[in-house]
Amino acid sequence: MENFNQSFEKYKEKLALYVPVVARVHGKSHPEFLEVQKAYQQIIEKINQNPNTKPEITNELTKLKEITQNYQLPQDTCESYEAVYTMLAQIDKAYFLY
């Protein structure tokens, strides 16, 4: 199992591409995703402040779980939306395991 830093590094480029696109495409019909985008941006800011340490992002990950109902995918979304939730769930899991 990957630790948090490994997991984040693995997904950060795809998330940087997918999150804004999913927000633009699905934001009107799924306004909760705009909250996901905001929480993810807060995570990025904290990681960038201390890139070589495990950031304190418990509150942000908890908020993501609440917003997404534990990363449950809405029925009328695309593969990119699903990919974002899957990657965020993996990062979340890695964060709390290590």
Task: Describe what you observe in this structure.
The chain has 98 residues and is mostly helical. It has one domain. It has 4 helices and no strands. The chain has helices at 4-26, 32-49, 58-68, 79-97. It is globular, with a radius of gyration of 13 Å. The chain starts with a helix and ends with a helix.
SSE inventory with pairings:
Elements: H1 4-26, H2 32-49, H3 58-68, H4 79-97
β-strand number: 0
Kindly state the mean pLDDT as a whole number? 94
Helix/strand-derived class? mainly alpha
Helix content: over 70%
Q: Which percent band covers the strand fraction?
A: under 5%
Q: Give the N-to-C terminal Cα separation.
A: 10 Å
Unreliable sequence segments: none
- Characterize the largest beta sheet: strand count, sense, and whether it forms a barrel: none
Outline: globular
Q: State the order of secondary-structure elements, H for helix, E for strand.
A: HHHH
What is the CA-based Rg, rounded? 13 Å
**Number of helical stretches of at least 4 residues:** 4
